[in-house]
Amino acid sequence: MLSTLKNHPFAVEAFFESSIVLTFAAPKEALKHLIPECLELDTFQDKWGFIAVAMVQTKDLKPKGFPICMGNDFFLIGYRVFVRHKTSWGKNLRGLYILKSETDKKRMATMGNIFTHYNYTHTDISYNDNEISSIASKFKINFDLNEKNAELPSESPFLNWKEARRFAGPLPFTFTYNENTKEVLIIEGVRQHWKPSPLKINHYDINYLKELNINGLLPANAFVIKNIPYQWKKGKIDIWN
Questions:
Q1: CA 151 to chain centre
Q2: Rounded to 5 degrees, what angle do the CA atoms 28, 95, 127 make?
Q3: Does a cis peptide bond (omega within 30 degrees of 0) precede residue 170?
Q4: CA-to-CA distance for 227 and 90, rounded, in angstroms?
Q5: How far apart are CA 55 and CA 122, in angstroms?
Q6: Between the CA of residue 108 and those of 171, 182, 229, what are the distances in Å?
Q7: Are 28 and 227 spatial neighbours (Cβ–Cβ below 8 Å)?
């Protein structure tokens, strides 16, 4: 019963007040071990794979159609790998594989682990107009929202923001995988008005990425987007062969 509940059994909606995403590139060989056998890395120039750190101020998360008073407000830090999945019906879907999710609300961590496979943990998160940090998670990102001509990180594999934009989301699908049953859970996201703006990152220190010990990890791009209504459809099961 619990495993069925975790398969995103109903549609969900929320409002993203702010979403900041910092994406890192690494040689694809350094990321392959992070994803299950049913997925492939979504690559650039058949050389680079990508892992993103998303920081989202979320408001009114609730089952679709439920009253606002049942919504949850929380801050999310999510770690995702850019991937593709070829379905049993022949579609090549582009999306994300969730490694870890952190939130500042204990209730959200509990509910998230009941209804998803997104590996929620509770942590302290502080945020203001130029910094997001967590003492317990050893996490800090400092940025400049007022910089109108932000440049790509000097180490980025992208030559310009047009190339980088392809890896700024939103990617329409997220995937989880049950190795025992070979079931791929596909969750489709639906959004409006997704127009990310380049963001200047002054400094970052992310302990979880250090723990992953990814060889050749480089900052690739950073974007910010605000005021986005978002929905996730009910999960769909595909059998991987």
A1: 22
A2: 90
A3: yes
A4: 34
A5: 14
A6: 23, 28, 19
A7: no
**Residues in contact with 120: Cβ distance below 8 Å, sequence separation at least 6, in sequence order:** 101, 102, 103, 108, 109, 110, 112, 113
pTM of the model: 0.94
**50 in Cβ contact with 127 (< 8 Å):** no
Partnered with residue 21 across adjacent β-strands are 54, 223
Which of 56, 83, 72 is CA-nearest to residue 111? 72
CA distance 208 to 79: 9
CB 156 within 8 Å of CB 25: yes
Q: Which residue has the tokens 């509770």?
A: 122
Q: pLDDT for 37-65, tens place per residue?
A: 999 999 999 999 999 999 999 999 998 98
Among candidate residues 53, 42, 46, the one with its CA nearest the CA of residue 83? 42
Give the tokens for residue 74. 């929380």
* Separation of alpha carbons 110 and 41, rounded Å: 30
Contacts of 143 (CB under 8 A, 6+ apart): 20, 130, 131, 199, 200, 201, 202, 222, 224
The beta-carbon contacts of 160-166 under 8 Å, at least 24 apart in sequence, are 161/198, 161/221, 163/44, 164/23, 164/198, 164/220, 164/221, 165/196, 166/44
CA-to-CA dists, residue 10 to 76, 115, 130, 172, angstroms:
20, 9, 36, 17
Q: How confident is the model at residue 227 (pLDDT cuts 50, 70, 90)?
A: very high
